[in-house]
Amino acid sequence: MTFQTGHVGLNVSDLDASKDFYLKVFGFEIFGESGEADRRYAFLGLDGKLLLTLWQQSEGRFATGTPGLHHLSFQVADIEAVRRAETVIRELGATLHHDGVAAHREGASSGGVFFEDPDGIRLEIFSPTGADTSPAPTPDAPTCGFF
């Protein structure tokens, strides 16, 4: 058997706020949605491919101290795409970790931005190259594992 990730489904507390956030930061398109009061959801993606589903069926903030999702990571083509995303994240006032672009490890070429969505779900947008001029927050540990 071979596997590849399909789409990721996230529980959110406010579908409108989350949908707006993901559309602005990632440039996703809406593939489908429901506005029924007790069955609200949105299907988001790019270039005809479903990538993310949002389900309004939770309350509160993402619990980082319990087993489950650590963070959700998206790869982009280059470090300039990461920097464009960082600009939007800052404009939206979202929580941004490591004060912007950070290398995955000291001296690594890969790296990105580490931030949170409106529900506190930890996210990463990274490029495989171009981050080597950005400092790593912790020289001897993977940046993506500690935010």
TrEMBL record:
Keywords, sorted A to Z: Dioxygenase, Metal-binding, Oxidoreductase
Top-level taxonomic group: Bacteria
GO MF annotations in UniProt: dioxygenase activity; lactoylglutathione lyase activity; metal ion binding
Region described as Disordered: 127-147
Domain VOC, residue spans: 4-128
Pfam families assigned: Glyoxalase
PANTHER family, per database record: GLYOXALASE_BLEOMYCIN RESISTANCE PROTEIN_DIOXYGENASE, LYASE, PUTATIVE-RELATED-RELATED
Protein name: Glyoxalase/Bleomycin resistance protein/Dioxygenase superfamily protein
UniProt source species: Streptosporangium subroseum
Source taxonomy: Bacteria, Bacillati, Actinomycetota, Actinomycetes, Streptosporangiales
